[in-house]
């Protein structure tokens, strides 16, 4: 029974990473099937549809927008604050756990600070 908590934690992280990628691939597969069926029936693809399909790929290939960096930074900072508060709460019971969780919270915290800085620099660069 003691293995279930850590196993559940890592399963949750895997689900957060794997499930969105799986659903995106399913969506792309449905679009490809629709396009294939239209081509097989001899229907011409409108230029707007081709532009919409290729613009998504071009947008992903380009550098991320400053708003996306800011959003990612705020999420990382929120995770860091949540971990830090969890460390404070656990620290009332186990004093040494407070410092370990604060150290763990530093990782997403500094990543969040870097994302926010990149987002702000990207905004400043876009204005000029």
Radius of gyration: 22 Å
Number of domains: 2
Q: What is the averaged pLDDT score?
A: 85
Q: Name the poorly predicted regions.
A: none
Q: How many individual β-strands?
A: 0
Structural summary, described in words:
Helix 3 runs antiparallel to helix 4 (95-127). The chain has two domains: 1-62; 63-122. The longest helix is centred in the first third of the chain and has 37 residues, at 4-40. It has helices at 4-40, 47-61, 66-91, 95-127. The protein contains four helices and no strands. By secondary structure, it is mainly α.
What would you say about this model in short?
By secondary structure, the protein is mainly α.
Which helices and strands appear, and what pairs or packs with what?
Elements: H1 4-40, H2 47-61, H3 66-91, H4 95-127
Helix pairs in contact: 3-4
Structural descriptors:
128 residues, mainly alpha, 2 domains, 87% helix
